[in-house]
Amino acid sequence: MDQMYFVQQNAIRSTLNRKKSHRFVYIVITAYKILFVSVKRITSVLV
User: Where does the sequence pass through the membrane (predicted)?
Assistant: First the structure.
């Protein structure tokens, strides 16, 4: 999970460095964070 997170962060960083669609990247990051938190909550409820 941690490794996956770091890979995601590196992908985000390289995309930001390109500065193509800054707004789109921001939306994707926000959606990813919300999804990540939701998954964490669901797993804690199940366990």
Answer: 21-39
Where are the chain's structural domains?
A: 20-47
Amino acid at 39: V
25 contacts 15 by C-beta, under 8 angstroms: yes
Stated pTM of the model: 0.44
Instruction: Report the alpha-carbon distance of residue 40 to residue 33 in Å, rounded.
Output: 11
Parts of the chain with a pLDDT under 50: none
Cα angle 25-26-28, degrees, rounded to a multiple of 5? 65
Tally helices (H) and strands (E) across the chain. Answer: 2, 0
